[in-house]
Design goal:
Shape of chain A: globular
Largest sheet of chain A: 6 strands, mixed
Largest interface: A-B, 32 and 32 residues
Distance between the termini of chain A: 29 Å
Helix content of chain A: 40-55%
Number of helices of chain A: 10
Oligomer: homodimer
Radius of gyration of chain A: 17 Å
Amino acid sequence: MFAQTSIVGVVGSDMPAGHINGLRSKGIDVTGIVTVQGGKTFHYDSSFDYDLSNRTTNKTELGVVAGFDPVIPKEYAKSDYVYLANNDPKQNIKILKFFEKPNLVVCDTIEFWINGSRDDVVKMIRLADGVVINDNEARLLCKEANLAKCAKKIMSWGSKFAIIKKGEDGAILFTNDSQVFPASAYFLDEIVDPTGAGDSFAGGFLGHLARRQRSDFLTMKEAVIYGNVMGSFAVEDFGVKRLLSITKDHVEDRYRKYCNLVQF
Amino acid sequence: MFAQTSIVGVVGSDMPAGHINGLRSKGIDVTGIVTVQGGKTFHYDSSFDYDLSNRTTNKTELGVVAGFDPVIPKEYAKSDYVYLANNDPKQNIKILKFFEKPNLVVCDTIEFWINGSRDDVVKMIRLADGVVINDNEARLLCKEANLAKCAKKIMSWGSKFAIIKKGEDGAILFTNDSQVFPASAYFLDEIVDPTGAGDSFAGGFLGHLARRQRSDFLTMKEAVIYGNVMGSFAVEDFGVKRLLSITKDHVEDRYRKYCNLVQF
């Protein structure tokens, strides 16, 4: 939607081909997806509170992620903007070394890695320029209830900014020069499934910075709104279904609607 | 802070005189506060989750509120803007009858009355122009998790707008002509006590409408921001301590800061 995008990952042979073809149909370079024959794709099971604000992890089955030794296709190495999704932080650190000189590296993490590999999570954050993370996971990682203090702690580890995602309550951007930008979520009457909203947020955020080729505070604020916009599409259906059905015009249209919505 | 303000209420003789003098010192007409000799002031005890987002009521002791038969001073009767705080809805309905022809009536309610007097709460909402209510109390009242649907249900009972307050996540204004305005809270590094934030929000909201003498959508949106601003002062200390220490300049200054904070 914003810039040429390539993906790195590992799946089992149980992954339906349609899923990968869907990404390819949107112009995403999928040569970095490794398929392990006979292996099982990562599987995650969670429940949401009745108001969709709290997520409980029921099951995390790593499958082929467990033994993955990541390599990236050569043609990825010159990428400028790198997003390390909520995967094994050790693998993320390894992946990062393949990139020659990225402009901006942003990472996310989840409860599973915070509980099992906290030191590696902190190490990954040291190597990143920015972090996007859920409110409750920030609290768990930082052992601190106050989100401003969580962000400060994350930035004390070396990241230049931290974005704390609050689900349907929006997100707050904090920078290491003490700037703050709280943004409401795009308002939706109905939410189908919040799963994937955070990754879509990160995609919109990095996508906007990548197409502008800059990451000053104003551009980052716009990028947070594009993040909200992409997250709002993601939750309108299961999986990437809604994201596969939209065009750039839908994105820009919703960005304008967002501006009208919050204007006063 | 915004307009000539008068208060109606009942307290016991245990109420420290300093509390009422504090209000008087800010120019508030307190002749509507009735003191019941030998009675005990309403007492409320609650706990907050570690992140201050969920409140649990431990104890609600009505004291002199229980037998209160409200009368308002004659000079109050011509008031234009009436806020029915989260008191007994039956008493609120009775109080409302004393006002001759108010421009705008807004009410709030809490768990205690929703659980014990739901029919009266709905009756009160029918008589009001607008409702301001906490997210979880809206869900309890409407038996519905989705906040947009809660607001629709509240408006189906006759109120023209509903504002759902989300604590440190801000507030959403819904109107019966399908307009929506989500607003982030003013961002604070530190919160001392969230108790009273909702009433302060309502005060700022109604105060701004009262001084503008209008309640079109744009003015209501500004009023929501003034509500956020007043709520943000309230939580910076216990009780009304912080509110008694600020001036109109502090309010306007924080309104401007809010505008800068959310601008992109």
